[in-house]
From TrEMBL:
<keyword id="KW-0808">Transferase</keyword>
<dbReference type="InterPro" id="IPR015422">
    <property type="entry name" value="PyrdxlP-dep_Trfase_small"/>
</dbReference>
<dbReference type="GO" id="GO:0016212">
    <property type="term" value="F:kynurenine-oxoglutarate transaminase activity"/>
</dbReference>
<dbReference type="Pfam" id="PF00155">
    <property type="entry name" value="Aminotran_1_2"/>
</dbReference>
<feature type="domain" description="Aminotransferase class I/classII large">
    <location>
        <begin position="26"/>
        <end position="370"/>
    </location>
</feature>
<dbReference type="InterPro" id="IPR015424">
    <property type="entry name" value="PyrdxlP-dep_Trfase"/>
</dbReference>
<dbReference type="InterPro" id="IPR015421">
    <property type="entry name" value="PyrdxlP-dep_Trfase_major"/>
</dbReference>
<keyword id="KW-0032">Aminotransferase</keyword>
<dbReference type="InterPro" id="IPR004839">
    <property type="entry name" value="Aminotransferase_I/II_large"/>
</dbReference>
<dbReference type="GO" id="GO:0030170">
    <property type="term" value="F:pyridoxal phosphate binding"/>
</dbReference>
<keyword id="KW-0663">Pyridoxal phosphate</keyword>
<dbReference type="InterPro" id="IPR051326">
    <property type="entry name" value="Kynurenine-oxoglutarate_AT"/>
</dbReference>
<dbReference type="GO" id="GO:0005737">
    <property type="term" value="C:cytoplasm"/>
</dbReference>
<comment type="similarity">
    <text>Belongs to the class-I pyridoxal-phosphate-dependent aminotransferase family.</text>
</comment>
<protein>
    <submittedName>
        <fullName>Aminotransferase</fullName>
    </submittedName>
</protein>
Length: 379
């Protein structure tokens, strides 16, 4: 019999709720994927490169033009300096980049600090390599970081801090002062920081994304992960990237080459061309803010208490006025009886903390969102 390396891990809540949505013909606002079309220009670029013979292995580190586009973008937006040859790597999705950072850094008994509610892949990846997760709970209801607690939780065993900004599932974004607090704390330690910035260009109400790439003095301790899938509505393409200082990137590539080696070639060429038009990513905030506002305005007419969404394409709502069911049972009830699938927020906590909150994904067609609101109005 195989001895499980992840004995406490089962099917993810995203798969469970998406299957339930299919089984009960419910509107799926659970899993974070769009139901609208990808930009036709990007599809045409993909078809062009695939039809013209760009179908063999890409370089292990990614094609040059795409790497150049990424480092240029970061220099322009955050005044950071990454070398396109030695300090950026294309990956098969952001998850693969995160997995490889952890596989590169973490040895048995190393400690990794994560902030909860947290994306559910962080903890299993750490545990696969013998590390120990040290959770810090974001302060409800504003989901802010207690930096005093962070400083107290860092020990000689702390190898890595993982920060998701903008944060899924809370929709919280970090401020300039938050980045300064991280900088002050990191300077007094030997630990590294993994910045999961897959929702980089999805911030609202004219608030700028505060990338950890701005902390130039800590470049050798910070690893930044991004996702084209999240930004350009192509989650099925599974293309991401990582930026890191050269010495770490050398180690990262040792793991990367034996994981996926290279990433889908015609997609890389298509994205490299697509990034030439800055509006393709700089206009995303308005696109998603319009959807957020449409959905929140509708949700505010129901019995849900809507929590702020400063970024990402998720919004959370408290259902205490509707039911006293545990959040996982309420999410199931909502799917079966009112045909709207959501994610219970407790799924993002190690101890399954239940604040009577469910998470909605609003990266959907307007009609999908309005249909969901109509269903929820009958609660």
């Amino acid at each position: 019999m195989i001895k499980s390396k992840l004995p406490n891990v089962s099917t993810t809540i995203f798969s469970v709720m998406s299957k339930l949505a299919i089984d009960y013909n419910a509107i799926n606002l659970a899993q974070g994927f769009p139901d609208f079309d990808t930009d036709e220009e990007l599809i045409n670029l993909l078809n062009h490169y695939s039809s013209n013979g760009y179908n063999q292995y890409a370089p292990m580190i990614g094609i040059e033009k795409l790497r150049h586009s990424i480092t240029d973008k970061f220099h322009k937006l955050y005044k950071s300096n990454y070398d396109y040859q030695t300090e950026v790597n294309i990956t098969s999705g952001a998850s693969q980049a995160i997995f490889n950072v952890i596989s590169t850094l973490i040895h048995p008994n190393d400690e990794v600090i994560i902030f909860e509610p947290a994306y559910d892949m962080y903890q299993p990846c750490v545990e696969l390599f013998g590390g120990k997760v040290v959770p810090i709970e974001l302060k409800y209801p504003e989901f802010s970081i207690d930096f005093n607690e962070l400083e107290q939780k860092i020990t000689s065993k702390t190898k890595l801090i993982i920060v998701n900004n903008p944060n899924n599932p809370s929709g919280k974004i970090l401020t300039e002062n938050d980045l300064k607090s991280f900088e002050d704390i990191l300077k007094k330690t030997d630990c590294y920081l993994l910045a999961d910035e897959v929702y980089e260009h999805i911030t609202f109400d004219e608030q700028e994304h505060q990338s950890f790439a701005k902390l130039h003095s800590l470049k050798d301790r910070i690893f930044i992960v991004g996702s084209f899938g999240k930004l350009f509505h192509i989650t099925g393409w599974k293309i991401g990237y990582i930026l890191a200082e050269e010495s770490f990137m050398n180690e990262f590539r040792k793991c990367h080459q034996f994981n996926t080696f290279s990433t889908h070639t015609p997609s890389q060429y298509a994205l490299a061309d697509y990034l030439e038009n800055e509006s393709n990513y700089l206009n995303l905030s308005k696109f998603f803010q319009d959807k957020r506002d449409l959905f929140i305005n509708g949700l505010s007419q129901t019995k849900f208490d809507v929590l702020p969404s400063e970024g990402t394409y998720f919004v959370n709502a408290n259902y205490s006025k509707i039911s006293d069911l545990p959040d996982n049972e309420f999410a199931e009830f909502l799917t079966k009886e009112y045909k709207v699938a959501t994610i219970p927020l407790s799924a993002f906590y190690n101890q399954k903390k239940d604040y009577k909150i469910v998470r909605f994904c609003f990266a959907k067609k307007d009609k999908t969102l309005l249909d969901a609101i109509n269903n929820l109005m009958t609660l």
